[in-house]
Amino acid sequence: MTPLPEPTEPSARADGIDAHRANVIPGGPRPGARAAGAPTWGDPPDGPAGAPPLAMRSADSVPSGSLHPVPWSPVSGAAAAFPRPPAGIPSAAELLAGFLARYRGSSLRTYQSKLAGFAAWSGVPLEQLPATLLAGGGPQAHLTVLAYRAWLRDERRLAPSTINGHLAAIHAVVEFLREAGLCDWTLRVRYEKARGYRDTRGPGVAALRRLLGAAAAGSDPAKATRDVAILRLLVDLGLRRGELVALDREHVELDADGFPTAVQVLGKGQVERHRLTLPPRTAAALAAWLSHHGGDAARPGGRGARAPATPLFTALDPGAGRLGRGGRPRERGARLTGLGVAKLLAALGERAGIPGGVRPHGIRHTAITALLDAGLGLRDVQRFSRHADVRTLAVYDDNRTDIAGRVAVTMSELV
């Protein structure tokens, strides 16, 4: 995890925070301006250098008259005393590691990003964030998160759904602390009112046909074969890009003749893979890619003959060798990432002349909407989309029929 930079001197952005906080919390200081000498969680202010963190010391080892340190509070503006926790409470690093261990892949990166933003605003290192919330207590955390929500809304002017993503990450940390028995309170900061799935149309079926044509006409045979297989899986199975890039070669099931018949997909929020049967066109596209990329990667039953971590789709772009995520050099043949899929589709959309571009989730939207247009019931389409709640598909159904638009036409004809 990349460490957060140290808080900098007040800037134009910091001045904006100051002005906002003066309205939210009278006299509230700028986040990051920790009170002079205020220790953070685990600092041994009265102990010798190299002593274990105060949170991990027994009561007998705490110097007489010392108080367990409270991290900087962006609301109170100063460190305050709170009851010393029981001996053996996890360290700040252990708290953060324990929380993040519950997630992986894109979910892990999302939580890291959201919490890093809150930590930077609060003026504490990310490693200290769960301990900071725990140490401050329920009222302190409530006021701080209220101020953060207002700053995201009024100063950064983020969309309600984006703000709610930040709040959800903070709520998840508090619930983790409560489930671990470290606190008996929870956050009750309300989410912003937001409407999900506002545009579920996607680029449309005609645009998908043009995308497939543009992919097949590529000048690089390897990329053309790969891109057609990717599009077929996204369209025909309605895969999310995270589900697509998480596929390994061992997750492809082959029949006795070595032809793909199904894939084992790890769905959103799932811990076990789900078997999805491949339609004939999808299977043919995937067979062409496996033949080009190494047809001996899997055998009947879906168990790979090679190392189980061999990715199904790999990077073939000219950017191989340049620095990628975390400053590590990208290698040709490395696993294709979700960002790589987004860039691939954007490039294909440009070549196909599709206005507005193409997003990975837009393809999924088009697939779901097309099935509803074809007359399939909500429950049938739910099995295809693998949405947990059928009410989500009801939104797709309402959007595709444009009920409000038809009512407006009726009204205009009455006047």
Q: How would you sum up this structure, described in words?
A:
The protein has 415 residues and is mainly alpha-helical. It folds into two domains: 12-179, no CATH class; 205-247 and 279-297 and 312-320 and 336-401, no CATH class. It is built from 14 helices and three strands. It has helices at residues 12-24, 92-100, 105-122, 129-154, 160-179, 205-216, 221-236, 241-245, 280-293, 338-351, 360-373, 378-385, 390-401, 403-414, and strands at residues 252-254, 260-266, 273-277. Strands 1-2-3 form a three-stranded antiparallel beta sheet, covered by helices on one side. Helix 6 runs antiparallel to helix 7 and helix 6 (205-216) crosses helix 10. The radius of gyration is 26 Å and the shape is globular. It starts with 11 loop residues before the first helix and ends with a helix.
Topology:
Layout: H1 12-24, H2 92-100, H3 105-122, H4 129-154, H5 160-179, H6 205-216, H7 221-236, H8 241-245, E1 252-254, E2 260-266, E3 273-277, H9 280-293, H10 338-351, H11 360-373, H12 378-385, H13 390-401, H14 403-414
Antiparallel strand pairs: 1-2, 2-3
